[in-house]
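Record pair follows.
FIRST:
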Amino acid sequence: MKRFFSIPAQLTAIILAVLLFGGMVPTSFIQGSYTFSSIFKEFLGALLPFMVFFFVVTGILSFRKNAPLVLGIMLSCIFISNAFVALVSYVTMMLFGSQVVCDTALTSLVVQAEPIHSLISFSIPLPFNGIHALIAALVVGIVCSFVSVPWLERFFLFGKKWIEYCVSYLFIPLLPLYILGFLLKIRAEGMFVCLLEQYGTAFMLIIALQVVYLSWLYFVASGFSIGAAWEAIKNAFPSYITAFSTMSSAAAIPVSIKAAEENTGNRELASVAMPIMANVHLLGDSIVTPILAMVTMTVFLGILPGFMQYLSFVFYFCMTMFAVSGIPGGGILVMIPILKSQLGFTGEMVNVIMTIYFLLDAFGTGANVMGDGALVMIVNKVLKRVGVTN
């Protein structure tokens, strides 16, 4: 029964309902539903900078408890891996982007229909944005790693706990209603069918890239042996199923540790690496988010980002990955300020990418966990090379 009431199942049901019956919904109901979505988004936007700050600070403080050299190598590998996958996603869009773009311009569709507006319009002023929160968190986290202040560390952990509580018990349960208001709006404005066509093709591209890249990564991690790579994939596949069904990398950690032990023969490394990687090595997100972002830019703006603009986005993207926790959908929530500041996303573009991201979250989470299993094998080889482990 939980599977039928999961977020992807609810969103799928909402999309089908809007597609089939959205034309019969009165305009007053659409406006009321979209008003709820707008208000909800405003409160979520006010929470995001605090989420980034507390998650990054507590993440840095937790790393301090492990061996510095092992952490340094591991974090370097994680950063390089996230960045490399994001660049592969860029090259993929350069090659195949023209095949995932809807022929009908969204701008013309919007003009032809009467736009839907929120009944209430307001904004919550914030003293700092997501980028400021990220920079402040890096500085505070590094300083507190060298200067221990127990009461301050307890405060950071308390703040993270309450933000996780708000997201898990307020945002996630109300997410279907938030999406409903937005989908009814774009259905009434004539954009819905085009978006389904647009992102249906993008979905196929994302899944294909995940399969190809993960196969290649396990091939490299296994010493370029097809047989060894296949065995490693079979060992890690239960962790994929666990992550896919729960939409949580954290829920798959016990299975991931067991698979990492089998694939590396290093129990100590598996016990340390997999919990860390579950939060910060997000291979699936490094494919899903950039491709969806570039598709959304193409749909709404008619352009793809230039290479230097995309490099800037990748840097902030990889840094922000350290702010993501095991909350379903956390990968896109903390990325919203980056999308706005680096790629020029508007509020409507954010709504679109959030909707599609949550539908693909199970696939992205599964790819995240499988990527962790391959990267821990690479880290193990590096540690052996530098003489840290036998």
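SECOND:
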Amino acid sequence: MGTATSPDKRRREPLLKLLREKIYIIIFHANTPAGKWFDILLIVSIVVSVIAVMIDSVRSFNEHHGTALYCAEWVFTMLFTAEYGLRLFCVKRPMRYATSFFGIIDLLAVIPTYLSLIITGSQYLIVIRLLRVLRIFRVLKLVQYVHEANVLMRALRASFRKIVVFVFTVLTIVVVFGSFMYLIEGEGNGFTSIPRSVYWAIVTLTTVGYGDISPQTNLGQAVAAVIMIIGYSIIVVPTGIVTVEISRSTQREHERIVCPMCRKKGHDTDAVYCKYCGGTLTTK
């Protein structure tokens, strides 16, 4: 029996391999006509499915078109489930893709609809499908922005410790002022606990100002004024930290580009010729 089926198996293997390669090119290669159309149709489907879910949350639309929207939701879910299965089918390492960023997003895009059969209302979580629109970067070939993104990431990594210190300082400020306001205002004016007072301090320091809690005493209002001024003072600190690191990173990029003719630096990162002597540029 084994020898009778082995020739059929050998004939099927090349066909299966060829099928996987074709599906892989269509799904993962946006530089082919079929790949571009696949990505465009996928993005349109994602956007339409998210809009349908958002519309379904509006009571008037749900009352008149609830059945149609429910059916549309399942149609999109089936399509995305099939697409997710094809992605796992055509890649060499399915588990590696399944645990990648896009693999996890693809899975999370279909799970909520199935969960809705058990947990009512969980279908609205499929708005996470909108994250899959990140694939549009492949379609539009926005490769020229990758360098700028790398500069920003390097700046964020370089300023990480400073931002941590800044956040710790802010947390200390809101805890201290929140505790003061709890002692000053008390439960009678809405400051029923220190955590709630700290919440008020955060809202005030960040200049959000919901107004659900407000100081009533003169001393409390004076403390609130101090927190507001501090909030305006520190709101620019993280921006300044990241801006400085971006400037340093950009400067380092400029210093890497050296003219082999005149040995001068300071050229733009996308420059091809030296702005001083016209020679072809090289990177250190």
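COMMENT: The radius of gyration is 29 Å.
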